[in-house]
Amino acid sequence: MTGSDFHARTRSEFQAFLVQQAQRFPAPNRLRVDLHCHDHNSDVPDELWGRLLKLPETWLPTDKLVQRLQQAGTDLVTITNHNNARSCWQLMEQGMDVLSAAEFTCHFPDESLSIHVLVYGFTPQQESRLNRLRQNIYHFAAYTLEQDLPTVLPHPLFFYSAKNSRGIEALEKLALLFERYEVLNGQRGFWQNRMTQLWVESLTEEKIHQLALKHKINPHDFCAHPYHKCVTGGSDDHNGIFAGECGSFLYVDNLDERRKTEPLSSLALEALRAGYIAPYGEPGEEERLTTTFLDYFSQVAIHMKDPGLLRLMLHKGSLKDKLLCLGISNAMQELQRHKYTLTFLKTFHQALGGKAPALLSNLGVPKEFKPTLKIIKQLAKARRKQPDQFSLTLRDSIPELYREVTGIFFRRLERELDGFKGQRFSRANLNTLISQFEVPTSFRHLAASKMSAQSHMSQVQVFKMMDELTFPALAALVIGGASFTGSQVLFANRKLMNQLADSLNAGHHSERILWLTDSFCDSNGVSSFLKNVLTEVQTRNLPIDLLTCHPDLSAEDHLQVLRPVSRCSLPAPFEQTFYLPDMLELQRVFEQGGYDRIICSTELIMGPVALYLKHAFSVPVWFYMHTDWNEFFSRSAGLNLQQSDRLRRLLRAFYTQFDGLLVLNNEHKTWLESPAMGMDASRLQLTAHWVDASFHQISHRRRLPDSRPTLLYAGRISREKGVLDLPSVLTRIQAHLPDVRLIIAGDGPALKKLRKKMPEAEYTGWIAAEQMAELYLQADLLLLPSRFDTFGCVVLEALATGLPVVAYASKGPADIVRHNQEGFLCNTAEQMADQAMHYLQLPTIQQKIMQNAAIARYADYHPRPILDQLMHNIGLHNQSDSSEEPDLYETQAT
Predict the structure, then answer these.
(1) 462-483 burial, b for 16+ CB within 10 Å, e for fewer?
(2) Is Phosphoprotein one of the keywords UniProt gives this record (predicted)?
(3) Which of 139, 294, 562, 884 could form a disulfide with 482 if both were Cys (CB 3.0 to 4.6 A apart)?
(4) Is the pLDDT of residue 458 over 50?
(5) Where on the phi/psi map is residue 159: left (φ > 0), alpha (ψ -120 to 50), or beta?
């Protein structure tokens, strides 16, 4: 079956743990408390971007949070704001029984490492002392022990480290400083919570003793019961959406009687000190995290003020952080100018609190937006009437909302682009696009609906049609950005999680490759190769799934197919239709499929998608370089030196974003390593294609040339493939061998021009693979005048049938063909003609030797070692191979 059971298994195991925890204490003797939640007094965030932009972590009023906690069935209120208990003190002044608490940011002395610590039951005077001591975690922890203030380490696997290189060592120290750990955090996923549980369970007395000796830290200086570890839960809610849905059961003996005379805050504090705690609830998954950040972004758009450029530049932080925050600030200010989008965000925010859209909003909504409003109404209704099912409603509603607004955007975009249809993408305007395409530095010009003409700017601008596209574009970006941020939070510490899994020898994430492509159903070499990959993966049940986006293609084992939200067709010289995937669905597929690395085979759509997933899930991404676009455009578009240099720099900027490149020939690899591209040689891995075994199966029928020899060209008929060299090649050969035939198999933009120059050739048009094998048998020699092919699948197909090849000595064919063995390498059209004539005039026995050499060379490109080496190069060392079938290639070779 496609995919992995990692996600489902991790979820099941952690839920079983929660069931066991819920059974620890009898229901009549337990308090239900959310030990980790925030309101508007968490106004100074730890995250640098929040401080740069002057954004609090939430605008949630205290009374709204209290109301939500009570609706969720909590028995006692506590609010854990950052470095202050102002909300707790205010509620106490109003006469409410509240457990005082705060989440303090503490620092390790002389280390670039910071952690959060939840502390309960302190007084205002103790709060002041705690804030002074938090600069040194050791002093802080010793003081809480001295004052008998129970502490909890929240989200233990998520802490702040400048270099993030001391993860396991930091965890070892945390094991000595605390006795209570939050193993259920409502804003972290199942895997992170499960790994926290496994880590806490591994902290045996013997382990604690070993760590104490290693780090020279006495745990008795910081813990009342250092060998007795307790586990807690909390929602970590900042918006009041899920507050109280995760928390802790606190066991109090004889609770019914004692609560009549004692405040619940005192009873809760007693249970915390004794360690009578059990977590309840369920971790956040993608729908919760997406909703949380979508609501936060909505409030940022509603409330954000200009942070001030001078203040921004003078604040501490890197220039990159400041520039990104400057971009965010400008984007939000532009969004605030668009009142319709702002109204949408306000309506969505209110719906999460159960407030349905107002009648006035209903009347003012165009028909196209009615489905969007309907979804928001359903959210509000679910919040009011089925709060316990709200997360399930979100699971369907948020993706549906995203599909609606993206659908509106692409329908409007298509209408706007209708005026451009029918315009041929000539070499002249292609050159113009490459040399002049630009993004303006002015944010107003980027987002304005009417932009001034600028001589140095291309007419292709990012938001040229803003009047029609602003609302759906901004709404889709906000929803997509929230989903992206949610995944980032869930997987930002993937490196530490993997290290911890290795340390515990448990909880390992599955190792699986998701291979992305735009070109699976096309009639080209990339598509053919990827189908061969799929066959090999299916045969051996390898940990690889291919994913493409297509409206009609059916999914199968190891092939994921997403239905597109829109499509775009490129004119000549590309002549290809691209399909745009639903990014929220793609994220769900990636997480639930248990993938942890990516290969991408195509640049235009899936290239940016791969980089999106890289940053969303903190996974490595490799790019498979099937095509040399620098060579392609140079030959097909006739770029001058300046345009070629600009294209090279654009390609370099794109490819350097990947963790590695899979390259198909030595010439291309050398160019990528050169100063022109500046790629680190360690990030470049040579690989190869292979071809379907059916080409080899008919090789025994290979004949020798007869009195009328036949030459063959197979492939795309386009300028970059060198087909316009063929007329001169044929003319030179015919001068000596007038009966020679030349068959041209394929189609492409240069076909008409080639027919005019070489009418005597035989043109077959595009031929299916099974018919192509027969055509190779009819030929006596394959001509490949391309200097562009990064590999040359037609060369390997020809060799598989025993057909020798004459090719230019460049790129892929130069690596495959060994001169004077299974074919010939040359540098000019004249040399190609001469080599062809040389072969056709060889004695029969020498021709037979070359045919046999061709078959032998084909055997060097066996799929098993090629694919195994590729997997090894990207870090998969233990390949699964469940197939017991005999290897087809080995059988044929025998």
Answers:
(1) ebeebeebbbbbbbbbbbbebb
(2) no
(3) 294
(4) no
(5) beta
513-527 confidence digits (pLDDT tens): 999 999 898 878 888
Q: Helix, strand, coil proportions of the chain in percent (round to 5)?
A: 50, 15, 35
CA gap 600, 526 in Å, rounded: 12
Q: Which residues pair with 808 in a beta bridge?
A: 826
Helix (H, G, I), strand (E, B) or coil at 638: coil
Long-range contacts at 214-221 (CB < 8 A, ≥ 24 apart): 214/172, 215/172, 215/173, 215/176, 217/173, 217/176, 217/177, 219/176, 219/177, 221/141, 221/142, 221/145
Report phi then psi at 567, rounded to 5.
-140, 160
Q: Out of 188-197, 435-444, 616-625, 825-834, which region has the weakest mean confidence (pLDDT)?
A: 435-444
pLDDT in tens, 545-585: 999 999 999 999 999 999 999 888 766 555 678 899 999 99
Q: Which fold has domain 694-861?
A: Rossmann fold (3.40.50)
Alpha helices in 353-463 (DSSP H): 359-364, 370-385, 390-417, 427-436, 443-447
The answer to whether the 506-686 and 694-861 domains have the same CATH topology is yes
β-strand 660-663 against 684-686: which pairing, if any? parallel
The total number of residues shown for the chain amounts to 894
Dump pLDDT digits (tens) for 320-352.
888 888 888 887 877 777 777 788 888 888 888
Alpha-carbon distance 713 to 779, whole Å? 10
* Confidence band for 46, pLDDT divided at 50, 70 and 90: confident
CATH of 506-686, one of 3.40.50.2000, 3.20.20.70, 3.30.565.10, 1.20.1250.20: 3.40.50.2000
Are 799 and 857 contacting, i.e. CB atoms less than 8 angstroms apart? yes
Structure tokens at 833: 């003609």
Closest among 119, 477, 95 to 293, alpha carbons compared = 477
Where are the domains positioned within the chain?
27-284, 293-485, 506-686, 694-861
C-alpha–C-alpha distance, residues 321 and 125, integer Å: 37
Give the single-character DSSP code of 353: T
Q: How confident is the model at residue 409 (pLDDT cuts 50, 70, 90)?
A: confident
| Band of residue 882 on the pLDDT scale cut at 50, 70, 90 | very low
| DSSP state letter for 886 | P
Cβ partners under 8 Å of residue 404, min gap 6: 371, 372, 375
Amino acid at the residue 417: L
> Taking 70 as the threshold, does the pLDDT of residue 627 lie above it?
yes
The structural architecture, per CATH, of the domain 27-284 is: Alpha-Beta Barrel (3.20)
E strand intervals along 658-809? 660-663, 684-686, 710-714, 741-745, 762-765, 781-784, 805-808
Token readout for 511 is 């190792």
CA dihedral of 246, 251, 252, 255, whole degrees rounded to 10? 60
Helix (H) or strand (E) holding 695: helix 694-697
Among the ranges given (334-338, 514-518, 872-876, 884-888), the one the predictor scored with the smallest mean pLDDT: 884-888
Alpha helices by DSSP H, 505-543: 525-540
Buried b (16+ CB within 10 A) or exposed e, 552-564: eeeeeebbbbbeb
pLDDT of residue 162: 54
Contact between residue 567 and residue 579 where contact means Cβ atoms under 8 Å apart: yes
CA distance 665 to 811: 6
Residue 783 has pLDDT above 90, yes or no: yes
Closest to 549 (Cα-Cα) out of 517, 592, 587, 591? 517
CA angle 203, 205, 206 (to 5 degrees): 95
Residues 6+ apart with CB under 8 A from 202: 504
The angle, 0 to 180 degrees and rounded to 10, between the axes of the packed helices 466-491 and 339-352 is 40
CB-facing half-sphere around the CA of 588: CA atoms within 13 A: 16
